[in-house]
Amino acid sequence: MASEFTANKPDGQLTARILLADDEPRLLTMLARLLREQGYQVTEAHGGKQACEIASKEVFDLALLDLRMPEVDGFATMTHLARSQPDCGVVVVSGESSFNAVSQALRQGALDYIRKPYDPEELLTTVARVLKKRSLLKAHEHIQVRLEKSEALHRYIVNSSPDIVFMLDSQGQFCFVNSKVSGLLGYQPAELCGRHFRHIIDERDITKGIYSLKDPTISADNPKTLELRLKSRGDGNNARHFEVTAFPIDPQTWPHAGTTQGNGSGKGARYYGTARDVTERKEAEAFINYQAYHDLLTRLPNRSLFQDRLELAITHARRNRQRLAVMFLDLDRFKVINDTLGHGMGDQLLQAVAQRLEKCLRKGDTLSRFGGDEFTLLLPSITDEEDARGIAKKLIDALRAPFRLGDHEVFVGVSIGISIYPEMGTSLDQLIQNADIAMYHVKASGKDGYRFYNETMSVDATSRLQMERDLRLALERNELKVFYQPQVCSTSDRVVGLEALVRWQHPERGLIYPGEFLPLAEETRLIGQVSERVLDQACQDAARWIRAGHKDLRLAVNLSPVQVEHPRFVETLLRKVRAHGLPTSNLEIEITENTIMNDLEQISEKLRELAATGVRIAIDDFGTGYSSLNYLHRLPIHTLKVDQSFVKAIRGGEDGACIVNAIVAMAHGLKLDIVAEGVETNEQLTYLRRLGCHQVQGFYYGPARPSANILQSLVKTRTAAPVF
User: Before 422, cis peptide (omega within 30)?
Assistant: First the structure.
């Protein structure tokens, strides 16, 4: 089934017919619009099954396919196209970037591979190039048909071919070469005729080229095909890759006895052949191979290549009874910088970090980006731990100087865990895992340092796994309890609100405070379930107290980023609140600044929807994250909560108290309520009252209490002393 261009562009060129297949409607529509704007005739198929049905009825010049499609995937669609209309070229546009998938697609006949998300300009260039190449190939096929009907000379020589066509005598000297050699390599046919073919072969491939002509198995039915690097004229370093096919010529059947075109004599020809430029294909293969084993952001080896080199280094160390070291590096404070300045700046920081780290390495060391802000380092052939210690100190020192990111100057540190072969592990997995465990101990002890692995660390790691198991069971067994801490009016000492705080009633360890298990809950993605439980119980309790007569009581609930970022966050929250009969005007949700800045536009819209229903919005731990007057002004924020670390600085006029002064003054200027956390002394309370801080909470009014103790305390609406 042959395809023809069926419409004309304004410039007179024929327009190609293109079939698009993707199971994502939005991406399919965007790609179709992009191609139609260039004048192409585009047919859209929602998935591989529909694409096969369309291809059975219509003819196309090119198909752009996704690999991951339900029912009929991209590979099956390619097979159908190859069977139903083999002249239709295929370009894969897919998010599947594994080496096996890319390799299989190219082997199955894909002309190019474009990764999602794609660059529109790159995609259009690729489509134009592939269509042009397909057009040239079709032209070449037509030429071949005509040449078969022409004279004997033209059956051997294709002057109009896009490939180099040549003839060699028995000594391997050119006796004919077409003019294509001039455009591809810069040689004139006349200067090559009479010279040995080794003259244009790259030195690295000369032996292979000469040996190929001496192969006794070569025949007309079994031509010799090989890849050679051919030199461009005047520049031996600028070699291009060619696929060369050579056929022997039978002197008895060779009819030509005179002079040929191309400034050569074909009389003594013993071989003829073609050389096709495959440089682009080789470069594409090299790039795909590079992608499979390197991190494209930092240009460092990726996890796969690091593991391959470590496996080889272990084998070498075992054979030669040597030591090696594996380091696991994790950047400190990277997440804060990434969340604050954005992912673009975060990527720049990772590139700058990689460059500094590489300067500390010895020849033969391997630094890889393991994922995110984690790096691994292989130090082969070390003498003892001091070698690894010295490198670790260099790495830490290298990152101490500030990094300049645009107009920002930022600081990062690094936590390094080290394992030594064979004392601290004898296998690839052991060495990496133990270095990772040691790194986490550095994090736990203050960050920005290094530690060697020891067996006691595995015990700690086991404890973390045990706590994770217990936390999952706690969710099933309803062991998580909600306690409440009062928020008190600083002038009247009246309880105006209650903050819901989670506690874990462990069956063996007793009451566990959130500082011990919430970081683990965030790491294991259980934080969403924990927050949901707290919200449900708190809404139920608060609604009961309000019905008991405390109509103005405000409930403050902390929400995790996982909850806030969920697409149905607003709908889910309001449904829970209304299900328990809690008036929305009595609810205040507390979120952190970093949660807002992660996706300012989306979070802003959600907060406006909630505020419209009467829900109050409070910024928790204000002053510790990305504090910005811009978002405070734009968003429906009602309350700022001063972090307890600033309140603690109120001691005898410490400079740290200036931060509290600034936050309170700013809140007054923006007409926002203020809640100061962590108030423990009368001195702090007096200071905050003098500043005009509206509300306070902390141990001065007692610790958080279970719900059973709350109602009785609420009866005392005004006290001269702490009420809790």
Answer: yes
